[in-house]
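ESCALATION

Customer reports they have been waiting on this structure for their group meeting. Please prioritize. Original submission:
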Amino acid sequence: MAVRHQYENSNDIGVFANLTNAYCLTAVGGSENFYSVFQNELSNDIPVVKTSIAGTRLVGRMTVGNKNGVLLPNSTTDQEALHIRNSLPDEVLVQRVDERLSALGNCIACNDYVALIHPDLDEETEEIVSDVLGVEVFRQVLPFSCFSCPSYFTISLADNSRKHISWKLLCIFEPGWYCSSTHEN
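Update from on-call: job pushed to the front of the queue and completed.
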């Protein structure tokens, strides 16, 4: 199923939300309609958390994560980090990153298996991405602007009937669309 969605007349919903297989972070302080679409579609399966990052609504631009963890910029307040940590499942690691390029969602594209990071990120940040997100990391000039990662979603698909087969995809969606599906055996 696909749902058309906007955030205050912006189709770039990836700027204001971070959706993974284990959680969804959404911007606080915006339209209740924005949050309610995620809540209605996802809350039965994963936690949907309203938050801000460094006092902004740019949750997708400032954070990056997958089913294993979420990375927050160092500018994230203690209260914001504690709220996120308390709202996510225990198996999801939450880590702040002291990085000059602090809009992590702009410079890192990842799924549950791999991460593409901007070449200008620190080596320490590369190690944190690998350790916290549990992925293989590649330094790569991304095929799209470094500042457009939130407009792209990374998807990890697994065939439940054949657990040994999995696909690793970096999917590009038109901004404003997100997909959800149910798998029936």
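Sent to customer with the following note: The two ends are 18 Å apart (CA to CA).
Escalation resolved.
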